[in-house]
Amino acid sequence: MVKNKNQRRQRRLQTQRNKTLLQHRQKVNDRVKRYVLLSKRVNHEPPCMQPLEDLTKIDLSQLGTNGLKNDTVLVVRPIRAPVQLGPLLPIMNVVEDSKSHVMHIEVYFPSTIPSTAILAKDIVLAIKTPTYEMGKHGPCIKVFHPSDIIILEQGYELIPKAFETAPESTSKSIWDWKEEAELASNHEAYSKALDSYSEAIDLAVANQEEHHQLATLHHARWLLKMLRSRSEAAATKTSGGMVANLMIQLVNIAYQEKKFDLVHRRLERLLSLLPENNQAVGLSKEVASRIHEDQHGLYDFPAMGVESVPLDHASFTRLTEVRASDDRGRGLFARFKIPRGGLVLCEQPFGVRQSTTTTRPLSSSNAYTECNANTRIWLDIVQKIFANPSQAGRLLSLHAGSEYSPSITNRESNTLSIFVQASYMNHSCVQNTSRSFVGDMIVVRANSDIPAGTKLTTSYVPAISSEPNRHAELLGSWHFECACPLCESEKHCRDDLEELFHKVARACPARSIDPYMAVEEVNELIKELEKVYSDSTFDNVPRIGMQDPQASLLDLWNPLRNHARIREHTTALLRERGYWIVVTSGGDGKLQLEGECGMPHRTVVRALHSLARFPETGSRREESREYLEMAKQMWNVFNDTCITWEEELETLDEIM
Prior knowledge:
The protein is of the alpha+beta class. It holds the Pfam family SET.
């Protein structure tokens, strides 16, 4: 009697399981893409802040009605492989409790790991304050916050006995096996790579993964099998041609991943088998150029400036390294001494997206009908990491945690790029590097001579007289207060400076008024500014508010051809930007531009060019040439490198 009752109960449970699985498949195949990753409900249903020990344990049969189950915890385990229709759509599965009840589950929060690692089959989960809803295809549990779902390790007291004998989850995921295969292939350990791909394929079959993922794994394993047998296949012309095509494919894959050393090794092997292969010969020349860029940082920037984006060039980052910084977590440091104007790094973006207001139809790869650059670059990078797991570490290591609460705004962003190495540069208003862009690549040069071991800095907000509120912008956008030498100097007179900055913007004259009257007005303004900048803390840093008045005086005296005044205000302008002309000790007495906190700018180039054009009476003949060399060096520091110095010099000569 008892046996028959148990059999009926088992049949009833099995019928319910089959029904739920059918509803789950219907839900997965539903083409109405009405789910959005970050539902508005996240703001209305905050995460549970209580520890697991303070929550009441329930099972699926106690969910009953729609809404949150406050102060409760649900312990379940997935019974099949998870499904996700797109990176911005929820991850779905079916879970069971210790009494064999089953229910559909959806996870809505974003993740940096693949869907196969979330809600994986046979892991044990604790879901805090589960949200229960009756949907189109039956009841469903929804999870909106990462902290509300916890993977329980074996032996945890909340795990029911029914789950203790459950089969252990696979030690490695498909993601892990695929990454292991790629690493082995990069080192040309083809046997190990083939074994790893086979493990990934077996696991994909067992988990009933989607067809395209399984096909990708089979294709990759087939290519490796053909590559391993290239020596035997090269015995005949027909098979040799097949091997050439396969190896060219592998070369192209490595080339797209910017692994130029690997490309070089594969090309050498291909040319050793087929030395007259035209495609390989042509590609080897390109690879030689890329390796030269990667190792020596030698680029033809003017030519790159007219190339189409994305640029096909290697990144040069060998002179820099990422390490811990005493005051700012991590930073980028110079490994070797870099001279002023020298190339610090030139880097390809990890991801780049242009901003647009064009709407796009909803699809499985984009759950938003309209996305700004921030959203699109996020989607692009996630898909890039999914396709090439070995690249994940480079990007994810950028995140060192947050010390502030993120907020959502309606502010539209412009073109957005992520540069992994350059992103480690910390801020300083008197930065020691300048950045520019050629196509989609970032170019960073040294503002001054940088000794080995120096922390490399860049300016997030430019320190200019038309923007006196940079401190507030740094705090509002980047959540920190700058403590660079310039900010420390301005700290005691910030209110006076802001008032004077606005006065400078109103007072600097136009060329249409009487020049001598304008000179007098600007000189009065400079006397007033001198009182604010009288503190000795400004002795070695730029004086931002003085730059525009000095530039105005230079503009006013240039047409009057008063060489003495031009030299006076040219030298003053250099000082206001943090530079001084000094004479080196020794017999030669050469001129040298100094200024550890100097701010490179076109006005500095123009000032040095003026000193070369109007040398002081009785000066050495070499002085003009030395000033021009300094001007050229400064030009190389900050310009976008697409305009040559000769072109700029011709423009300056016309102005003068």
